[in-house]
Specification:
68 residues, RNA-binding, single chain, 3 helices
Length: 68
């Protein structure tokens, strides 16, 4: 896990780092699992939500879409 990521690298355009904080279903991992500080977790959450809104990250993975 990327617990030693500097705050400057947590940005909505940095998809490689942000995807490390998502599980297989596309949900944001908790602080307990990622072992990051509260400040970093808030930045990660905001960056992931911005990336999803701008269609840089999917809301759901491709293997789950359309299964109903």
């Amino acid at each position: 896990m990327a617990t030693d990521v500097p705050l400057e690298q947590i940005h909505y355009k940095n998809i490689e780092i942000l995807s490390q904080f998502l599980d297989r279903q596309g949900r944001i991992l908790s602080r307990r699992k990622t072992r990051v500080s509260a400040k970093k977790q808030r930045r990660i959450k905001t960056a992931i939500k911005q990336a999803r809104h701008l269609a840089l990250l999917p809301y759901t993975p491709s293997h789950i879409r359309g299964r109903r």
